[in-house]
């Protein structure tokens, strides 16, 4: 079991990043802007073969049961109270030894498990990369679907959303998720021989809120220490970069309604710190494109990400 840590002091460098995007942006819905009319529909909890509980305990105070729904032709989870990690392992004949922990987005209220989780993990496994989908604990939402839909609508309707908390309060609220990410890294390293993973080549890629968690894990994850990270349409405000910050890949659409007009301070922060960073700004794609096929160049982010990994020798078998 990985003990939950206090992040208030550890995340000072991340506060400037979060303060510039605010609550509504930092907790965005990781859903595709091109299909906003699609309705939510409850579904049974799907099978998750191989999922391993991370031992971080049940979310304190949570009473609503975990629930799943379909939307945008994809699958989402909410009211996650117990964190799990699901492995997607490559064919041993093509395994590289590199691993990636995949953090779906969903505003810390839902998780885009299919589009930003399983589909990403399967694509990585096809490249010889062991992928592990992190189902991290979430902020509680109403049990009944109509009430949940209303709460999500209110979250993004001007004038009805709750006041934005101070950055310190927001970071303190991420303590469970950071603990889940730390536990995920610890588990993959513990079972690295079984899963044919090089424990020095474990990275993390996150989408939207999952990208925010990826950055938070890099800054405040203590023993997690990702070897490389991917920030896919997440916050890009400036921050203090750790001296040993890992190489970072960033993908964002210029027409992203949440982060497309917030500047690129995070990129400059990495460059100023003389840490490796690659940034892809796609003309179109909106927010939440993930693995959805779209008639925009943003659909190519995954191939660019794996080319970047190859450039860093992460797709070559570990010696």
Mind sketching the topology for me?
Blueprint: H1 12-19, H2 22-26, E1 41-43, E2 52-53, E3 67-71, E4 74-78, E5 84-88, E6 99-103, E7 110-111, H3 114-126, E8 130-135, H4 145-155, H5 167-172, H6 175-190, H7 192-195, E9 202-207, H8 209-220, E10 229-232, E11 248-253, H9 265-272, E12 277-282, H10 301-311
Parallel strand pairs: 6-8, 6-9, 9-10, 10-11, 11-12
Antiparallel strand pairs: 1-3, 2-5, 3-4, 4-7, 5-8
Task: Give an overview in words.
With 319 residues, this protein is an alpha/beta fold. The protein has one domain (12-311): Rossmann fold, CATH 3.40.50. Helices cover 29% and strands 17% of the residues. The protein has ten helices and twelve strands. It has helices at 12-19, 22-26, 114-126, 145-155, 167-172, 175-190, 192-195, 209-220, 265-272, 301-311, and strands at 41-43, 52-53, 67-71, 74-78, 84-88, 99-103, 110-111, 130-135, 202-207, 229-232, 248-253, 277-282. Strands 2-5-8-6-9-10-11-12 form an eight-stranded mixed sheet, with helices on both faces. The chain is globular and about 50 Å long.
Observed structural traits:
single chain, 8-stranded mixed beta sheet, alpha/beta, Rossmann fold, 319 residues, 4-stranded antiparallel beta sheet, 10 helices
């Amino acid at each position: 079991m990985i003990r939950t840590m206090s992040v208030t002091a550890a995340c000072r460098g991340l506060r400037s990043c979060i303060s510039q995007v605010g609550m509504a942006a930092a907790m965005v819905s990781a859903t595709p802007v091109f299909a906003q009319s699609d309705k939510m529909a409850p579904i049974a909890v799907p099978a998750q073969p191989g999922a391993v509980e991370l031992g971080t305990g049940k979310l304190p105070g949570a009473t609503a049961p975990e629930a799943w729904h379909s939307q945008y032709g994809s699958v989402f989870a909410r009211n996650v109270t117990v964190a799990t990690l699901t492995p997607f392992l490559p064919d041993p004949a093509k395994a590289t030894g590199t691993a990636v922990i995949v953090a779906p987005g969903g505003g810390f209220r839902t998780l885009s498990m299919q589009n930003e989780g399983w589909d990403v993990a399967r694509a990585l496994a096809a490249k010889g990369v062991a992928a592990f989908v992190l189902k991290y604990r979430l902020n509680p939402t109403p049990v009944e679907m109509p009430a949940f839909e209303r709460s999500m609508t209110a979250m993004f309707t001007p004038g009805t959303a709750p006041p934005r908390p101070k950055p310190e309060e927001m970071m303190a609220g991420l303590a469970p998720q950071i603990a889940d990410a730390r536990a995920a890294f610890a588990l993959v390293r513990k079972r690295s021989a079984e899963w044919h993973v090089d424990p020095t080549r474990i990275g993390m890629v996150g989408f939207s809120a999952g990208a925010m968690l990826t950055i938070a894990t890099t800054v405040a994850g203590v023993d997690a220490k990702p070897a490389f990270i991917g920030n896919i349409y997440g916050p890009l405000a400036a921050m203090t970069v750790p001296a040993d910050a890992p190489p970072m890949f960033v993908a964002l659409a210029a027409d992203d309604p949440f982060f497309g007009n917030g500047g690129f301070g995070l990129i400059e922060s990495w460059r100023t710190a003389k840490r490796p960073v690659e940034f892809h700004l796609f003309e179109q794609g909106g927010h939440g494109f993930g693995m959805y096929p779209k008639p925009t160049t943003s659909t190519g982010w995954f191939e660019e990400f794996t080319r970047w990994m190859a450039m860093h020798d992460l797709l070559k078998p570990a010696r």
